[in-house]
Amino acid sequence: MLRLRSSALRFKAYKTIKDKLINLEIKPGEKIFENELAKSLNVSRTPVREALLMLEHEKLVACSNGIGFVVKRFVAKDVEEYFAIRHIIEDYVVSLVVERITDAEISDLTDNVNKTKKVIKEGNINEIIRCETEFHDILYKAAKSEVLLETVYGLVDKFQLLRSLIANVSGRVTTSAVDHKAILDVIKKKDAKRAKKLMRLHLKKAQRAVAGLQNILF
What we know:
By secondary structure, this protein is mainly alpha-helical. It has eleven helices and two strands; from the N terminus they run αααββαααααααα. It folds into two domains: 2-71, Arc Repressor Mutant, subunit A (Orthogonal Bundle), CATH 1.10.10.10; 76-217, Up-down Bundle (Four Helix Bundle (Hemerythrin (Met), subunit A)), CATH 1.20.120.530.
């Protein structure tokens, strides 16, 4: 029973801290204060420390001698490689989605696009990021490939963190929403060639936006 409780507290701390990282409540390069996190979660420092070790394993935080845990900054080479991988993944995803997507999944994407418009008007950045992540998540699942999902979900946190950073670039969320709507429209038409082209342009715009955040990322 104690072991189960310890595991539950560790997971609670892990999930809470990861959400804070992805939502930029704790930004790249910033120190993580274990005592404050423990107090806010109403737990001891042990599950917080265990959660941070898990996040260190995922390369989201780093332990620096004399400082403690800090949020990892991105390395320029890593960002370049993440986008290179995303280009390959999304290209493959689109080719499968055009063949395999169901009417229900098209309806889910349509709902997502409409919801994104609404949350952009409301200015809720966290909800905008969730919607953007959900759009791609629906596409990944619509591809109906277990191997693909296994591969993507090992990288999705990095993609979402980059997405959060990009969302702070002026005008970027509106541009991204327009891109998603255009991609959905050509998927409905089963036009794989055009869908791939639009997805590549979408990712190139995101990569350019990241390049303008060097003082935050690197």
